[in-house]
Design brief:
This protein is α/β, with parallel strands linked by helices. The chain has one domain: Aconitase, domain 4, CATH 3.20.19. The protein is 33% helix and 17% strand. It is built from eight helices and seven strands. A seven-stranded mixed sheet has the order 4-3-2-1-5-6-7. The protein starts with 5 loop residues before the first strand and ends with a helix.
Length: 196
Amino acid sequence: MDPFTSHTGRVTPLDRVDVDTDQIIPKQFLKRIERTGYGEFLFFDWCRGKDGSRDPEFVLNRPEYQGGTVLVAGRNFGCGSSREHAPWALLDYGFRAVISSSFADIFMSNCYQNGLLPVVLAEADVAHVMAAALVGDGYEVTVDLEAQEVRDGNGWTAGFSIDPFRRDCLLNGLDDIGLTLTLESEIQAFEETRGR
């Protein structure tokens, strides 16, 4: 996966709480075996009206939020089923980080494994980012994993905590397989002695 050190991008505000993984990527799109191609189905049921046409009021369909790469949402984001397709869809759409005051544990773990940074901020800080993004004038933030802070161009800054192991893996672009491969020479040495 791609390393994550620092990312600056436009904020897309999803002013909803308890967003579950079936809304992030509905079950009918889980038939693919690749990790790509899910972005077009992100928040599918919310993006479209009852007749199947795009709902111009939904945030992803609004022109002022096109090209957003940082999603801010209400508490308990990613609840529901444990589908890894949810971070795949968010990444494939173009998001690199999601800001919320809380995430479902399995969703958060799946984000770490795929290079999507879940950023937990205090409710007041999430409210600040949400309000600024809802103005719709291209509000941007920098999510800095090295410094463990989120900041905007107006002098606002908020720190966040992350497990040191997860931070190190993201900074170096290591999922579980990549992490295992860093020990390839030790594994090879063990395998050579095992057959004797």
